[in-house]
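Q: How would the C-alpha cells look for this protein?
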Amino acid sequence: MTYSEVIRTQRKAKGLTLEALAKRCGTFKGYISGIENARVAPPAVDLAVKLARALGVDADDLIELGWATKAPKRIRQRAMECIRFNGNSLLCMRVPSE
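A: Here is the predicted structure in C-alpha cell form.
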C-alpha cells in the first residue's frame, strides 16, 4: 500500500473528511487531497506525526513509509517490496543484521 493509499484508507476508516483531517493537522484540505492523490510528496516529519496521531497509526511507521515513497526509484522499489501496511501498522520484513 502506498503512502497516499494509507492516508486515504485510514481517513475514510475514521470517518473524517479531507477538511476535518486538515484541521486536526493544522494544514489545508487541498494539501491533504494532494497527498492522497500522490500529487505532492509525503510531508515532513512534523506533519507526518500529526497525520499519524489523527489517523491512529504509528508515527514511525508512517514516516518510514514516507521515506520509502520519496526515495530514488531503484531504492523505492526495493523498500516497497519489504514494507506492507496492515491496519494500523506497517509490516516490515527486515533483513537480520550480521
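The chain is about 60% helix and 10% strand.

Confidence is low (pLDDT under 50) at residues 93-98.

Upvote if useful.
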